[in-house]
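Risk mitigation, structural track. In case the binding assays with pyridoxal-5'-phosphate fail to produce interpretable data, a predicted complex structure has been prepared as a fallback.
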Amino acid sequence: MQNNCIYLDNNATTKVDPEVIEVMLPYLTDYYGNPSSMHTFGGQVGKAVRTAREQLAAILGADESEIVYTSCGTEGDNAAIRAALLAQPEKRHIVTTQVEHPAVLNVCKQLETQGYSVTYLSVNHQGQLDLDELEASLTGNTALVTIMYANNETGTIFPIEQIGLRVKESGAIFHVDAVQAVGKIPLNMKTSTVDMLTLSGHKLHGPKGIGALYIRRGVRFRPFILGGHQERGRRAGTENVPAIIALGKAAELELLHLEEATARERKLRDRLEQTLLATIPNCVVNGDVTQRLPNTTNIGFKYIEGEAILLLLNKYGICASSGSACTSGSLEPSHVLRAMGLPYTTLHGSIRFSLCRYTTEAEIDRVIEVMPSIVERLRALSPFKNDDAGWLQGQEQALAHR
Ligand SMILES: *Cc1c(COP(=O)(O)O)cnc(C)c1O
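Fallback model:
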């Protein structure tokens, strides 16, 4: 097993902060009590869970009673969508976007087979929504609007509060998948239009297997998982105490580092991006560069395959992604880039680099050093180097032969 890689795939998952591990460990060894127990042994664990809940609430500007722990971001998205529909059984319409995470898209697709109608809002070439299209889609029958805060593939940030004002007017519940936003953008639920918000521990230097759903006080909610009375009856199951403690610490550290870490990441990201654009011909940045997460860049390298770039980067110990882990191993390009209407020439050769607060200057220098030769090597093998029409034809043939 190797772990000395240059890790630039932080939108897929992150390293657990050593301080987080340290506070979590005693709850795997000595303090294994059940927080719901009557005895002091369990009670002290319950007290630690309350502290962790306050730490997590703080990064959202929320009240601790508005936090419900989940097993991951995916569960948060599923729970929010189902809850909003169960709470308003008379309404049968959902609004979402074409560029959501599969944790939202695949739920919506299934709901379409269960009598719901779903509007999938389009995005422009920069990956941005048309707020007029959103407004036109909202009706009295709309139960839920579920839209991500920031896109995991391109880093594009949606104008959530502008969207929220329109959603409020329609009377629908507003859920936001903020898995990529928490710890990267300052959030304050007190002044927000968001009703429910999903986050995930492993995207913010916490462990895998823990997430949370923020549910605004007063918003009608129906639990997705039924059983005991944990989480004020909103999510049954004995609490994942070590992971909850860890998520509290991770949130505290993210909030503490937010300003300085994101400024640093933005600087490193911009240097990486600008240098690659200057040294490699025929490449473009995908997404909205003015409204973007500070840690993410998605670059399209024309005429070559993203998977081939990743394999060569991997030989240098550099971890990046071709946008979506869910489509890896197939020729199918990312649904996000496709929705943006990117030309075929860049659709297949797009790479996402996502940084974190552990990313060093030397690591970025190394990527800047090796990328030009990787692209040159692959382009030398490409029969359609400077021929957009030829490339397109080749792609169509490849798809037809699958
Ligand atoms: C990673 C991710 C999820 C899923 O979170 P898990 O904790 O891995 O289930 C959902 N939405 C977005 C935008 C993500 O990036």
